[in-house]
């Protein structure tokens, strides 16, 4: 059955761009007589706030959306992500990265074959790693693109369907050795999203074109974890009067402030092209 989702992070109030994304997914689910899932991506405890979570539900209801309950909050399902990470670890597909942000940036800038655009590394020699672990040094888990390529015999067979681009060959190297588990929370975006899309039976991922590169990485994770690949649609991003994409910091464009200024959900739907 057709199933799509809207997956905001409660790090600020929703703005028109989110409304566009949510309506695109919601209307697609309606047309297909399928499921619409709202997922709260709140693993980043340092940036997520409960009042933004409440506001998301409130603003989307105001917009006329409804969704399946209970709503999945990623922070309540860390075990699912840890289990997926353990599977990757058992196959040697991830490695511990003890580097600080600064050290990662330095390693990228001074790579032997010229600066790296995305980080590629690898595990430390066993003795060095053991010493760091014994000293209690914090570490992130990174995906090893080299190990992934070795397991799959390269990435040539990895593809996904994009609504506008058709069949796209996945290029997971766009992301480098992405962090799958952060030092602080033990999970990171790509892993949580990939696991959840599969667990929630999502058949169609509809999201902004800013996440196009993310799709390449997530396609690889699906292959490594033996998960199904949904179809993808990446919609254009709304821009503000200055031509720049809307961001959570654009307070004037939040759904809250539009509402306070007297805009009706119908007006907003029309303005966003949903008639
Ligand atoms: N939580 C992500 C965001 O707020 C979206 C994730 C996704 O759609 O895959 O940008």
Give a written overview of the molecule.
It is a single chain. With 275 residues, the chain is of the alpha/beta class. It folds into two domains: 1-76 and 239-275, 3-Layer(aba) Sandwich (Rossmann fold), CATH 3.40.50.620; 78-194, Glutamyl-tRNA Synthetase, Domain 3 (Glutamyl-tRNA Synthetase, domain 3, Alpha-Beta Complex), CATH 3.90.800.10. It contains ten helices and ten strands. The chain has a three-stranded parallel sheet with strand order 1-2-3. A three-stranded antiparallel sheet has the order 4-5-8. The longest helix has 16 residues, at 16-31. 32% of the residues are buried. The mean pLDDT is 95. The structure holds glutamic acid. Glutamic acid (GLU) binds at residues 7-9, 41, 193, 207, 211.
Give me a quick take on this structure.
The protein has 275 residues and is α/β, with parallel strands linked by helices. The protein has helices at 16-31, 50-62, 78-90, 101-109, 126-134, 145-152, 189-199, 212-225, 255-260, 265-271, and strands at residues 3-6, 35-40, 72-73, 94-97, 140-143, 159-162, 166-169, 179-181, 204-208, 231-235.
